[in-house]
Amino acid sequence: MKRAPKDTLESSRLLSRRTLVVGGVQLAISGGLLLRMRSMQLEQADQFRLLADENRINISLLPPARGLIFDRKGVLLAGNEQNYRIIMTREDAGDVEEVLERLAQLISLTPEDKAQALKEIGSRSAFVPVTIADRLSWEDIARVTINAPALPGITTEVGLSRYYPLGADLAHVVGYVGPVSDYDLSRIEDQDPLLQIPKFQIGKTGVENKLEQTLRGSAGTRHVEVNAYGRVMRELSRQEGTPGKDLQLTIDAGLQSYIEARLDGESAGAVVIDLERGDLRAVVSAPSFDPNLFVRGISVKNWTELNENIYRPLAAKAVQGSYPPGSTFKMITALAAIEDGVLDPEETIYCRGFTEVSGTRFHCWKPSGHGNVNLHDSLKYSCDCYYYEVGQRVGIEKISAMAKRFGLGVRHDLPLSAVAEGLAPDKAWKQEVRGEEWRIGDTVNASIGQGYVLASPLQLAIMAARLASGRNITPRLIHTIDGVEQPANSDQSLGVNENTLRQIRAAMDAVSNNQRGTAYAARIAQSEMRLAGKTGTSQVRRITAEERARGVTSNADLPWERRDHALFVCFAPVDAPRIAIAVVLEHGGGGSSAAAPIARDIALQALYDGTPPIEAYPSGVRDQVLEQQQRIEQRVPVGSVRFSDRA
Amino acid sequence: MSYLGYGVKSVPTGFRKLLYVNWAIVLLLVAITSAGFLQLYSVAGGSVDPWMMPQVKRFALGLTVMLVIGLVPIWFWRNIAALGYLVSLILLIAVELFGEVRMGAQRWIDLGFMLLQPSELAKITLVMFLAAYYDWLPLNKRSHPLWVAIPAAVVLVPTALVLKQPDLGTALLLAMGGGTIIFLAGVHWAYFATLISAGVGLVVAVFKTRGTSFQLLQDYQYRRIDTFLDPANDPLGAGYHITQAKIALGSGGVFGRGYMQGTQSRLNFLPEKHTDFIFTTLAEEFGFVGASTLLLLYVTLIGFCIVTALQTKDRFSSLLVLGIAMTFFLYFAVNMAMVMGLAPVVGVPLPLVSYGGSAMMVLMVGFGLIQSASIHRPR
Q1: Where in the sequence is the domain holding A100, given as residue range(s)?
Q2: How many angstroms separate the CA atoms of B84 and B92, rounded?
Q3: Fewest CB within 10 angstroms: A382, A580, B128, B294, which?
């Protein structure tokens, strides 16, 4: 089969032409590919590199160690404890159930724990470690570690967890931490990424809460490389965070624990202030609760118990409780009148057991009356009629203003949860809040600290401190932050006539140290240590005429919640005051019989910085005191047992 | 024009043929395949298993096959072209009836000792048959509608069968490879102009019929097109592949992230990193320098094929070489365009680099035919 050469030539020319076209197209397409490559790899490289890094790098946060809290002497109040966990990784475990079974023979695992663990393991990727058991003792961990060869996929891990060594004794002051809740997140303005860490713990109450920013520190970061399935391949970089700052409180933990123990069985609040700088040496609310329960996640049973207890252990009564101050308020009424010039301290007013004010009869606590009393006697005997008269003379506005100068009805700025403002009522307040006219009877009630007047133990202690010093003592709770002394602001003079104050103090001295004083039984036997105080017994109910007629006024005959509050405020030593104290016993009976002895014991404990010599007590009570001291020494604070110490 | 037409004297015989093997093409093949070995070693995390070693063995086998085919005179291949085409058609029909369904497509016939993919075979036999057809067809008849209809049918029948499997990528390669030979054979421009217009019309039709009961493509094919048009649409679903591929390629920069340092491939963000997306691992690790070098190797190889085609003096050889070169070109152009987000993901491997036996064997057979044409050309 031969063909003409022409045919072949023409054919091959055509083929060459078309080949050039096809080759040209191919070259053009290849050029297009090259341009695309260039645009992606040269011009957009940075952008794609960023996307690649976003793909592969996971940033995880390293929680910083929370700042520690110490008392004024360096006793640890809130620390971080090593918390051992057992972790299981499915892909290393092989037969998960079998391994769990073996683990259950070494540590206590309830069937529920196991079911929960199995469920979580099943729902995660095989390489994700799952926590099987938390907060184990060192012994448990040791057992698991020794048996490691029989427990594939099981590893132990250690983390930090908040711990309160003194348990319940400082629960209301230090507060507690707990896992961040959605509510917390909605409330907190700074959105620290740390808060997003599952189960990250933040301060919920007390100092832990108010000084959260100081204590928390800042997060470290850890960059890890992950593959497409999220498995961590290696750590790229690690930057440790800044630990939180340590705090030192002005609280004396020994004194605090003593008071907590001394108040055992009472529902009470007590505050001790150091007069030098306004340091709060003790802020006690009783009964208390174990804050460690909250850190671990409180059980419903424990929570219900705390919540339904009629003594309200969760309430910080020392700062949050508002009580009618009763007779402890009388110094304020007297000061207002004397400063106003309407009362001469030497002037006597006649008490016949009651006073008639616009048709209403106001009774003195002593039905037979005190006869003629001056300022000194009125405080010593705690005569009510004297103050009914004085209160009417000076008027509520002046009384209210004087109360505020002494720290009542004013919110004190302390890093504690729910600091009560109390109430130093005046006419405007009643009009605004109750929508009623102020009545003269209201003034009469207020003059003896009843009616609308309300104060917290903290405020009463501040009042006593200011009476004792004549200075504008301002309470301070934070001693140092990170070793830096925090400012105290207790130097300024109150501006009240020192002579008048001296007379008031002398009367308070008589209350405790004059044989006819209402608190003579609760005196300090050593003259150089003696305290000056004022009793108060405030009614929580109205005594009906019928009851008065029947003579049923004894507190012991009433149900607990209708008994009077017992109060006592004092400072000591009289000659050179160092401390001021307020004690309020809810429904505790009488100020002189119930509150004063407790305040005396607290004062001695504080003045001697520990157990006082028995000579400090009047001889009649020494046996009883010794027995009590022994009981308190043997006490172990609630919740102060470390969980790692438990078998 | 067959070799007989030029006389035997100018054609090497016996073992002298080995001297006339086109060694430049062999060298380029080795270079390209080596790039593949390098990447298969890298994506396996620095191991010859499981991909590099089998690939090396396959390439050794492929080189042997190429040489054997190359030493067989070109006219033998022309004479069996029609038969080969017929066998391919029968196998394509058989695969439709008895084929193995793998990964949602009917592509394989289990011969007991190996899996045969008739569509791969068809890529070669179609080109061979068309080259033989135009070698036989007198020049003056080539633009006659009847003589155009025959090769059109020759292209469309296997294309339709492959499309039905469904295998869009191979169908595309078949249609475009066949079309190129018809074009090269000198068929009138007007046919191609019409065809291109019709193609545009078809694309419109494909989209217009979507969602109706007589839609032209499978749902997954539509989804692939959607994904191609907007990968960000579905970044974790079907668009994931293309997005991750682009990230890998782009993040390579000028010099790449270093051999075995590509995070996208090493950390498994890249899908199919040893097969269809292997180019992105190379681009990630060797950057623009590496990627453009590979592209240059491909283009140079095509260039040598075109030169070879122009050197041969008979139409069968020329068309065959150009057809095979076109198929090869389509492989890497479609694959690169695909991983760079310029074309839909149609499942075309990167020739000689992607892990896989079928494509490599087909290509080595193809280059065997090119060698045969080159060796047996009159000098």
Answers
A1: 83-163
A2: 12
A3: B294
Residue A225 contacts B where some CB pair is shorter than 8 Å: yes
- Cβ atoms of A56 and A222 within 8 Å: the answer is no
Using the beta-carbon criterion (under 8 Å), do A56 and B340 form an inter-chain contact?
A: no
Tens digits of residue pLDDT in A486-504: 998 888 998 899 999 999 9
Structure tokens at B294: 């590979």
Which of A2, A20, A37 is best to mutate for the B interface (most B CBs within 10 A)?
Answer: A37
Tell me the per-residue pLDDT of B176-200, one tens digit each, with 9 for 90 and over: 999 999 999 988 889 899 888 988 8
Residue A113 maps to a domain: yes
Residue B242, class by beta-carbon neighbours within 10 Å (0-12 exposed, 13-18 middle, 19+ buried)? Answer: buried
Q: Looking at the 3D structure of chain B, how many domains does it have?
A: 1
> What is the CATH classification number for the domain harbouring A155?
3.90.1310.10
CA distance to partner chain A, nearest, from residue B378 (Å): 15
3-state secondary structure of B332: helix
Q: What value does the CA radius of gyration of chain B take, rounded to a whole number of Å? A: 21
Beta partners for residue A476, in sequence order: A279
Is residue B283 within 8 A of residue B38, CB to CB? The reply is no
Strands (E), A124-250: 129-136, 154-163, 177-179, 201-203, 220-226, 232-239, 247-249
3-state secondary structure of A553: coil
CA B366/CA B352 separation, integer angstroms: 12
How many Cβ atoms from other residues are within 10 Å of residue A127's Cβ? 14
Query: Are A176 and A169 in contact, with CB atoms under 8 Å apart?
Result: no
* Three-state secondary structure call for residue A573: coil
Give me the interface pTM, i.e. the ipTM.
0.90
A229 in contact with B, Cβ within 8 Å: yes
Residue where the block lists tokens 């080949």:
A19
A552 touches chain B (CB under 8 A): no
- Whether A107 is covered by a domain: the verdict is yes
Q: With CA atoms as reference, report the closest residue to A172 among A201, A217, A210.
A: A210
Residues A315 and A586: their CA atoms lie apart, in Å, by 12
Whether A643 shows a pLDDT value over 60: the answer reads no
Residue B184 and residue A51: Cβ atoms within 8 Å? no
**CB–CB contact B288 A38 (8 Å):** yes
Give the mean pLDDT of chain B. 86
Domain presence at residue A501: no
Residue A334's H or E segment, with its range, is helix A330-340
Sort strands A579-585 and A57-62 into parallel, antiparallel or unpaired: unpaired
Residue A70 parent element (H or E):
strand A69-70
Q: Mean pLDDT lowest for which of A190-194, A305-309, B266-270, B291-295?
A: A190-194
pLDDT in tens, B44-78: 988 898 899 999 999 999 999 999 999 999 999 99
> Who contacts A518 (Cβ-Cβ below 8 Å, separation ≥6)?
A380, A381, A382, A511, A535, A591, A592, A596
Tokens of A226: 């992950």
Closest CA to A71 of A282, A277, A269, A268: A282
Number of domains in chain A: 1
For residue B42, what is the enclosing H or E element?
A: helix B23-43
Q: Give the containing element (helix H, strand E) for A280.
A: strand A280-286
Tokens of B68: 């054997």
The CA distance from B289 to the nearest CA of chain A, in Å, is 10
**Residues 157-216 of chain A whose Cβ lies under 8 A from any Cβ of chain B:** none
- DSSP per position, A460-492: HHHHHHHHHHSB----B-EEEETTEEPP----S
Establish if A636 belongs to a structural domain: no
**Which stretches within B49-184 are classed as H helix?**
52-71, 74-79, 81-98, 118-136, 145-164, 168-184
B218-243 mean pLDDT = 70
